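Design a sequence for this backbone.
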């Protein structure tokens, strides 16, 4: 099985009720399940931000999860994606929660 297509990197910010609802923990879980690397953290303005890297199809799955699913008790109003680009190699070895 080959790695599907080019590697992508994208930054994200999730708006809504996304703090105090285990959002980071579920994001880390989902990222590991899907097989993407990067990070997630809470911001001081009540959003969750981070970066996702991996094969394009896996990054797209993660983008969809960050836009529509989230943690069970979260409410996602919107998710902004920025700096989407193709990269030659992954900059992270895993997916982590930052503080």
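Sequence:
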């Amino acid at each position: 099985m080959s790695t599907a297509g080019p590697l992508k990197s994208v930054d994200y910010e999730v708006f809504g009720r996304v703090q105090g609802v285990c959002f980071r923990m579920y994001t880390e879980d989902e990222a590991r399940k899907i097989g993407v690397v990067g990070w997630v953290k809470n911001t001081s303005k009540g959003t969750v931000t981070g970066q996702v890297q991996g094969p394009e199809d896996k990054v797209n799955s993660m983008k969809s999860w960050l836009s529509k699913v989230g943690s069970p008790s979260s409410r996602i109003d919107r998710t902004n994606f920025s700096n989407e680009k193709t990269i030659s190699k992954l900059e992270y070895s895993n997916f982590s929660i930052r503080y």
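The beta strands are 7-17, 37-42, 48-55, 75-87, 95-97.
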